[in-house]
Amino acid sequence: MPDLGPLTTALGYDYQNQALLAEALSHRSAGSTNYERLEFLGDGLLNFVIAAALYRMHPELDEGSLSRLRASLVRESTLADIARDIRLGDHLLMGQGELRSGGFDRDSILSDVVESLIGACYIEAGFAPAEALVLRLFDTRLHNLPEAQALKDPKTQLQEWLQGQKLERPVYEVIGKEGKAHELQFTVSCVVASPAKTVQATASSRRKAEQTAAADMLQQLIDDAL
Amino acid sequence: MPDLGPLTTALGYDYQNQALLAEALSHRSAGSTNYERLEFLGDGLLNFVIAAALYRMHPELDEGSLSRLRASLVRESTLADIARDIRLGDHLLMGQGELRSGGFDRDSILSDVVESLIGACYIEAGFAPAEALVLRLFDTRLHNLPEAQALKDPKTQLQEWLQGQKLERPVYEVIGKEGKAHELQFTVSCVVASPAKTVQATASSRRKAEQTAAADMLQQLIDDAL
């Protein structure tokens, strides 16, 4: 294992139990004692600590916005970015095959290990130090959140924009279905009564087609309003 | 509000902040200050505390089994059962319409309020008392867990049973599709080479049909083996 000093510094936490730390850093390909149970534990702790931080920092946000913000923070790609920031890949323990295929830089593995390290901290030190570790790792991101509005799906954004203008809700209708059963393409229309406007979109599911149509409609309405 | 004494006794926790408690007990139909933010928080805490309890109680279980056990404990119907055990419905604050339509006994609302009460405890008292509250509410269920095996889906159960008998994997094939696009019925065959056996099942998705066929196949193999 390379020198753990830089990792300890980056995490701001010094693991006492070296066997537990090795478990947290071990991919399945390294053997039967690996990070998977600790990852399960750390995932739960991470989700809760981020939820609690958002709850306290944003008394003005409703539960849907809090939930979307949390999802954006704890998703795999964000965790993998954090792992790369602290050069976690240098410390992973994995089998030769997994190493050769680039596992040390794979998003799914890097994000798992961020969680397993959080879980290991909780196991040896308890809730408060593990919470502090999460808040350190996410400090910058918690203070630079995306606008809650931008995380809403296009249909919700469109409906809220129309409500804000005291306009009627849009009407969606499936106006075409083409292709064989397993490759059906749905064409959907989205109609707004006032200002009278219709857009269409085609996608592999009704839901996707509606979302695409809604995004297009909202963009057109905003452009018209400028 | 009816006397909160029985609820306090059932929870084993006495809320100090009455405004916070009222918020935790208030359905959306009662007004804009309602339990939804606290529910978001309590859901996260509940998931983590149950994960940590299962992790500690079951060092022999892998992450998949832990995850299935947690899902069985925190699902809506289990939370609603717990809510009924402590007669939570008597204390819900909701609008007239929601009351008349039976909202005080609806699984979705009852389970939400179990979570919001956990969230409120955390907000006013911190992690340790909220953790203790969760462990009290789930004490019986944590000590009477379903067999991890029984929570696996039928395809996994069938495959593991065949592996245990050193037999080959089953082969699934879609052998029929009927009906219009939005009401397609899939018929799937599940074939085991040795002992030679075929079963079929029909359902609204390929996945469901496969699971039904697998469950049927496993039952037949076990019956034959007896």
Structure, described:
Two copies of one chain form a homodimer. Chain A has helices spanning 5-11, 18-25, 36-57, 63-74, 76-85, 96-100, 107-125, 127-137, 139-142, 154-164, 206-225, and strands at 171-178, 185-192, 197-203. By secondary structure, the first copy, chain A, is mainly α. Chain A folds into two domains: 5-145, Ribonuclease III domain (Ribonuclease iii, N-terminal Endonuclease Domain, Chain A), CATH 1.10.1520; 152-225, 2-Layer Sandwich (Double Stranded RNA Binding Domain). The radius of gyration of chain A is 23 Å and the shape is elongated. Chains A and B meet through helix 3, helix 4 and helix 8 of A and helix 3, helix 4 and helix 8 of B.
Summarize the structure.
Two copies of one chain form a homodimer. Chain A is mainly alpha-helical and 226 residues long.
Write the layout of secondary structure elements.
Two copies of one chain form a homodimer.
Chain A: H1 5-11, H2 18-25, H3 36-57, H4 63-74, H5 76-85, H6 96-100, H7 107-125, H8 127-137, H9 139-142, H10 154-164, E1 171-178, E2 185-192, E3 197-203, H11 206-225
Antiparallel strand pairs in A: 1-2, 2-3
Helix pairs in contact in A: 2-7, 3-4, 3-7, 3-8, 5-7, 7-8, 10-11
